[in-house]
Structure formats: C-alpha cells, structure tokens
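call fold(seq) -> tokens
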Amino acid sequence: MGSNATPWGAYKAITDALRRRITEGEFPPGASLPSEAVLRAEYGVARNTLRRALADLEGEGLLITMPGRGRVTSSPEHAAPPGPIFRRISVDLRAAIERGELQQGDGLPSEAALTERYGVSRWTARQALIELEGAGLIETYHGKGRFVK
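ret:
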C-alpha cells in the first residue's frame, strides 16, 4: 500500500487487518492503539484513509476514542454486530424521531452535518437518509432539505 496513490478500498484492508489484530489479542481490551502517525507509516497511507478505517472500527464498537488518551480497544463481545455504517446513522435518527426529539415538520441534519458528526462520506450519510425516506419517516423537499413526516 506504499505508493503515492492509495488503492480504492485500501481502508477496508486496513480495517480488516486492525480488526483481526484486535480480535486475536494483539491489542487486548483497554489497550491503546498506536498513534495515527505510527499506523499511517505502518500501512503507508494518507491520514484520511487511516481515519476512515478507524471510524469503521469505532462504528463496530471495537474502538473508543478517549480524550487525552487516543483510541482504546473495546472488548469484541461488546462490539456492535458488523453492518453498514449508514444503518447506525439511520437507527440513531429513527430513535430521535421515535423519542420525539425530531417531530413532524422538523428538519433533519444535512448530509454535510451527518458527514461531520459520524466521520463518514457524504454518500454514507445520504444512504441513511434514503433508508429513512423509504421507511416513510422523512420526506425530501428539493432545495429545502429533509423533514420528518
């Protein structure tokens, strides 16, 4: 992976390698992961590529970011079942609607806001919103945004 151009999907290979290292005990529960700089050098990738892999592992519940300490491993048995990250976003938004935090007519966070909040691509955020729209919970008004039905 050490060329100037990062191959498409390189973050997935890094995600898989780090997941294996965590689940096989190289980084036991509560252990600090090496710094981003160390991991970037090890895998020969750009910061964004590495961060995308780390975000996937956080989404699975295998890593926790602790202020002042960095990323720490969680125990695999407490990890969320693997699945698409967009599903976690749609579940979070659905729960906010069901709890009444987002009520009929309220605007949903934009794709850009969801991208920032969850550390995902714009397409991943869009997939979550498409899923909610397909479930009949939200509707899109082009040029205005997405709103709770």
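Residues 46 and 71 are 18 Å apart (CA to CA).
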